[in-house]
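Handoff note, outgoing to incoming analyst
You'll be picking up this chain. Sequence as last confirmed:
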Amino acid sequence: MTEVIREVSGSKGRYVIRQNGEEAQMTYSITSPTLVIADHTEVPEAFRGTGAGLAMLTQFVADARAEGFKIMPLCPFVNATRKKHPEWADVFAA
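Most recent structure output, in case you need it:
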C-alpha cells in the first residue's frame, strides 16, 4: 500500500492514496477547529480488498487525535467502520 496523503484547501480536505494512475479518496469538510465532517469515501475497483479505505480512515483518526478535532461520520463507510473499532470512540462526534 502506498502512503496516505492529506490535502487541504480552505474548508475542504481529503485523504488520498494514488496507485497505478488511480486514486482512492476520503473527503471531508471542516466546520470548525474542533469538528470535521467525513463526507464521502471513494475507492476504485482496482483498490478493492487492499485496505485503502481503512488506511485513509486510520490516518484521519490519528490526525483527529493529534490536532484535537472530532469527526462527524456522515459517510456510510466511515460510520460503518467506526462501529467495528470501539477504540476510536474518542474521536467521533455521533
